[in-house]
Design a protein that fits this description.
It is built from 11 helices and 17 strands. By secondary structure, it is an alpha/beta fold. The protein has 2 domains: about 1-30 and about 280-400, Beta Barrel (Lyase, Ornithine Decarboxylase, Chain A, domain 1); about 90-275, TIM Barrel (Alpha-Beta Barrel). Strands 1, 11, 12, 13, 14, 15, 16 and 17 form an 8-stranded mixed beta sheet that branches. The chain has an 8-stranded parallel β-barrel with strand order 2-3-4-5-6-8-9-10. Strand 8, helix 8 and strand 9 (about 230) form a beta-alpha-beta unit. Helix 2 (about 30-40) packs parallel to helix 3 (about 60-65) and helix 5 (about 100-110) crosses helix 6 (about 120-130). Belongs to the Orn/Lys/Arg decarboxylase class-II family.
Length: about 400
């Protein structure tokens, strides 16, 4: 996962020169995105498939860059499904999400969804009413909320705890029995999405091994004929120590070994990654409007804020950033600066929650400099509350641009 910082910085500087107001922008590096995903897909074992969970970032240029490279898209709403089908008539689609409407289930049948992820027994029964009379059986996975206690050192683990996602293990038997008399639905396997922000490759491999063992037992106990299991998303981005990212090389190597000795021969493993695919291709840029020294603390006030980039506040971290010095200072009054100190970075919103970085060391930063936040390509613009305070949206562009 290489960041092409030089190319991004060059384009940000060029935009700053042309702008007659402090700059605020999202920049996406599509070439880096392609290289990253190409590398992920090419290092997966043969029986593994990579889907992209589009809720991480469903902007069209991102999806267009990814569509030829991934095996399919995972959608979590009827809106996402329609968006994908409007632009990609044939790409394989998996459809997840608690609380699907009847209309969304019908749309799934009409729009050639390849696999539906069923979240409860009653959703299964509802689907059967809708799928009755369809020309072919609807393929489904049962989403399971699986306890994997020995592997849960992290509070990010949802598995085995009360959640609205998936069904507890003890409800599966009723589903298996019921499915025997419902040929309009075909059980293709199981879906597990038990955690987010996984940074430990070995722990993730152990989790996958545990899923496979569990599925082997269900297949044997209930004589199930399945074709794949979906092991969800959840591979994380290390925002706190960006130089220490998830070790994909160790992960893919371990995965090859796991698949060589698999307890589920002939069964595909499907990933539906979101954050890990698109986080690194996006950058959020703010130009410093003001610097305040308030009771021993420095605040950099940038153009923009959490209404554009809610990721750091949503995750509770201080987001990493780069300072791009801008030499021009068009004013007669002295330019404010901070050197070798710690700063908080805030935006333009009238709330103390508008915080993007805190207690962050800087060598030197001045009013008018540019702040570039990397890892802003997933759960960033599209999880933010854009209309709060009615500031205009940031500029947005995609590298490589025509001039580069
Ligand atoms: C959000 C989500 C994903 C993607 O998760 P990431 O942490 O972004 O990889 C995958 N599957 C399901 C069911 C999800 O809800």
């Amino acid at each position: 996962m290489e960041l092409r910082l030089a190319a991004v910085f060059t384009s940000v500087r060029a935009a700053e020169v042309k702008s007659d107001e402090p700059l605020c922008a999202y920049v996406y590096d599509l070439e880096a995105l392609r290289q990253h995903v190409d590398q992920l897909v090419s290092t997966l074992p043969d029986n593994c498939r990579l889907f992209y969970a589009i809720k991480a970032n469903s902007d069209l240029p991102i999806l267009e860059a990814l569509a030829p490279l991934v095996h399919g898209f995972e959608v979590s709403s009827g809106g996402e499904l329609d968006w994908v089908r409007a632009h990609f008539a044939d790409i394989p689609v998996a459809f997840s999400g608690p609380g699907k409407l009847d209309r969304e289930l019908s749309r799934a049948l009409e729009s050639n969804v390849e696999c539906l992820h069923i979240e409860s027994f009653s959703e299964l029964q509802r689907l059967a009413e809708i799928a009755k009379g369809a020309s072919q059986p609807m393929g489904i996975l049962l989403r399971v909320n699986l306890p994997v206690d020995n592997l849960t050192k992290t509070s990010l683990m949802m598995g085995g705890k009360p959640t609205p996602f998936g069904m507890p293990v003890e409800q599966l038997e009723a589903c298996f029995n019921w499915l025997q008399t419902h040929p309009e639905i075909r059980l293709r396997g199981f879906h597990f999405h038990l955690l987010s922000h996984q940074l430990d490759a070995q722990a993730h491999l152990q989790l996958l091994a545990a899923y496979q063992l569990q599925v082997r037992q269900w297949c044997d106990a209930y004589d199930l004929q399945i074709d794949h299991i979906n092991v969800g998303g959840g591979i994380g981005i290390n925002y706190r120590q960006p130089e220490q990212q998830f070790d994909w090389k160790a992960f893919s190597t371990g995965l090859v070994a796991l698949q060589d000795n698999t307890v589920l021969p002939g069964i595909n493993i499907r990933f539906e990654l979101g954050r890990y695919i698109t986080a690194a291709c996006g950058y959020y840029v703010m130009q410093v409007i003001d610097i305040k020294h308030s009771y021993d603390q420095y605040f950099l006030i940038g153009r923009g804020g959490t209404h554009h980039f809610r990721t750091p506040y949503a995750q509770g971290h201080s987001h990493p950033f780069h300072v791009l010095p801008v030499n021009a200072w068009p004013h007669a009054y002295p330019r404010l600066s901070v050197s070798n100190d710690r700063v908080s970075i805030v935006g333009q919103l009238c709330t103390p929650k508008d915080l993007l970085a805190f207690d962050a060391p800087v060598e030197s930063v001045s009013c008018g400099d540019l702040l570039v936040f990397p890892y802003a390509g997933a759960y960033a613009w599209n999880i933010s509350h854009h209309d709060f305070l009615r500031h205009p949206p940031p500029m947005q562009w995609y590298l490589p641009t025509e001039q580069s």
